[in-house]
Amino acid sequence: MALSAFDDKSKPPPKADLAATLGKSFIHWNALREILASRFVPLTEEWGYTSKSPGGVLRLKTRKRVIVYMAPREGYFLASFALGEKAVAAARESGLPDSVLEIIDSARKYAEGRGVRIEVRNSKDVRNVEKLAVAKMAN
Fold first, then answer.
1. What Cα–Cα distance (Å) separates residue 80 from each residue in 10, 16, 55?
2. Which pTM was predicted?
3. CB atoms within 10 A of CB 101
């Protein structure tokens, strides 16, 4: 399965297509972008494609550091992080629910950190992703 619902590498998906694909989660997509834009200044957005699996992802970055990758799916989106061990420790102290901590603990470890993917379907998921972003960027 592709990481993202969009695979046209020539351009970012049109806003209407993104909204149609995400459905009710489009509001959460925009909410997360706005929250992170207010926390991390300057915030830039960049659509890109991974080499391992087809599909476009939106990278939210501050300066040259990626905060989170957002991959649209049918009806929801994935928020993906590379979390170093200091960020993992901070996440454990941030009040995240056990279900999210289990995802972090079971995530595969890479040189750049644990590859963590969180499904975002509601406002509670947005808050959890915000906490992870704060933990990551503080460490």
1. 23, 23, 14
2. 0.90
3. 14
Residue 61: its pLDDT value, please?
A: 97
Helices (H) and strands (E) in the chain, counts: 5, 6
Q: What ranges do the domains of the chain cover?
A: 15-137
Q: Where are the alpha helices (DSSP H) in the chain?
A: 15-22, 26-39, 85-92, 98-106, 123-137
pLDDT band (50, 70, 90) for residue 50? low
Cα 9 from Cα 3, distance rounded (Å): 14
What Rg, from alpha-carbon coordinates, does the chain have?
Answer: 14
Omega before 42 within 30 of 0, i.e. cis:
yes
Q: Rounded mean pLDDT of 61-90?
A: 96
